[in-house]
Amino acid sequence: MWEYTDKVREHFLNPKNVGEIEHPDGVGDVGSIACGDALHLTFKLDDQGRIADAKFKTFGCASAIASASALTELIKGKTLEEAEKITNQEIANYLGGLPKEKMHCSVMGQEALEQAIASYRGTPTKEVEGTVVCECFGVTDLEIERAVRENSLKSVEDVTNYTKAGGGCERCHGAILELIAKIQGETVPEAPKPLTNIQKIKLIEETIEREIRPSLRQDGGNIELVDVIGNRVQVATRGACASCPSAPITMKNLVEAKLREFVSPDLVVEEVSS
Ligand code: FES
Q: What integer pLDDT is reported at residue 120 of this predicted model?
């Protein structure tokens, strides 16, 4: 579960500047509903060249709504030169921070603003720049490089949190690591050695004992490890878990999630009887 600041909650529950400006000076559209996040930003300038009004419509999660709302508040009253210096980190800071898994929402706000300013100036938008590295989410090398540079990202997971790249089939992970290494002037980190089966079983047992059993015991339940076949982890439910209709959800959301976090992201948990 993500921790949201009060400011994020406030901007999610009562977003500012929702809607669309008629006859806007600038329009920015980023993301797509098919990818789960989309943002439509419009602004109007006053006769001094300052942003007099800004409105947004978004399709996305609480962080996407809060980030768009924050962005519109941040840019009002600014010249375009001032507005275009706003970084995604400033949008997140305005909200008192965002969960790291949701930083891509602030990046989406920054990109929508860039597009809206580009549309006003009649210059090409950034969306078409670079070569697509992540086919799943259509993210280019230049977008990844920029996110790594501006936010000091150090891992594929960081890049996924900020750009979504790498969050699907994982085929692009090698290319993302190379981009990180290129920017940091580092060598590509060595891939960790795979666990032996004995190491894997030991780590699974430890994770169940430390991370999973305490939660299950609170509700009178338990699980036991039955077998590990490759990446398939077979467990049997005990106590209240054995008759609980929510057991399949617990298997996915608690047991599998913890084992993937602490042992290996490739593990799949199966419930078996024994
Ligand atoms: S190509 Fe990047 S996650 Fe699939």
A: 95
Which amino acid makes up residue 157?
E
Query: How many whole angstroms from its chain centre is CA 272?
Result: 33
CA distance 212 to 204: 10
User: Per residue, what are the HEC states of 39-106?
Assistant: EEEEEEECCCCEEEEEEEEEECCHHHHHHHHHHHHHHCCCEHHHHCCCCHHHHHHHCCCCCHHHHHHH
For residue 114, give the nearest of 50, 66, 71 by alpha carbon: 71
Q: Which of 64, 77, 53 is nearest to 112 (CA)?
A: 64
Q: Flag residues of the chain having pLDDT under 50.
A: none
Indicate whether residue 112 lines ligand 1 (CB < 6 A): no
C-beta of 135 in contact with ligand 1 (< 6 A): yes
- CB-based burial of residue 93 (10 Å sphere; 0-12 exposed, 13-18 middle, 19+ buried)? middle
